[in-house]
Amino acid sequence: MIEFRIDRRSGVATYVQIVQQTKQALRLGLLGPGDRLPTAKEVVTATAINPNTVLKAYRELEREGLVEPRRGLGTFVSASLAAPAVPEDSPLRAELSDWMRRAREAGLDREDVDAVFTSTRSEHYEA
Questions:
Q1: How many other CB atoms are there within 10 angstroms of residue 81's CB atom?
Q2: I need a surface site. Which of 22, 38, 111, 124 has the fewest CB within 10 A?
Q3: pLDDT tens over the chain, length 127 residues
Q4: What pTM was estimated for this model as a whole?
Q5: Maximum Cα–Cα distance across the chain
Q6: What is the CATH number of domain 14-77?
Q7: In terms of C-beta density within 10 A (0-12 exposed, 13-18 middle, 19 or more buried), how is residue 15 classed?
Q8: How many CA atoms lie within 13 Å of 61's alpha carbon, on the beta-carbon side?
Q9: SS (H, E, C) the chain
Q10: Domain-wise residue ranges, the chain
């Protein structure tokens, strides 16, 4: 089951962080159709956020057709965003891991890496 990590300093709305993390888990194949998301109560206990925030995120995911609520059972994944898998031993993953290690050694923090990644991605992919 997914565990949400909320970064209160990111400037990104909490519900958006939950939506983004769920989509990332779907893309990576960590969540798939039939998997249950944690209940709002479980998320609130783990993250100390307002239950309405969790429900707002789940409604957004439902609106996008990615999850479906089942009365009395919880919220379940109904669609996948997984692309063809990039295996753990993939050369692409190894190159990215090596780049991340070098970036860290060069003194870049997470925000620096995000900025470089976002800028570079924009050069190669349309918005």
A1: 17
A2: 124
A3: 899 999 999 999 999 999 999 999 998 888 999 999 999 999 999 999 999 999 999 999 999 999 999 999 999 999 988 776 666 778 988 899 999 999 999 999 999 998 998 888 888 887 6
A4: 0.71
A5: 51
A6: 1.10.10.10
A7: buried
A8: 30
A9: CCCCCCCCCCCCCHHHHHHHHHHHHHHCCCCCCCCECCCHHHHHHHHCCCHHHHHHHHHHHHHCCCEEEECCCEEEECCCCCCCCCCCCCHHHHHHHHHHHHHHHCCCCHHHHHHHHHHHHHHHCCC
A10: 14-77, 91-124
Joined together, the tokens standing for residue 60 give 């957004």
Which long-range contacts link 100-109 to residues 24+ away (Cβ below 8 Å)? none
Residue owning tokens 């990215």: 96
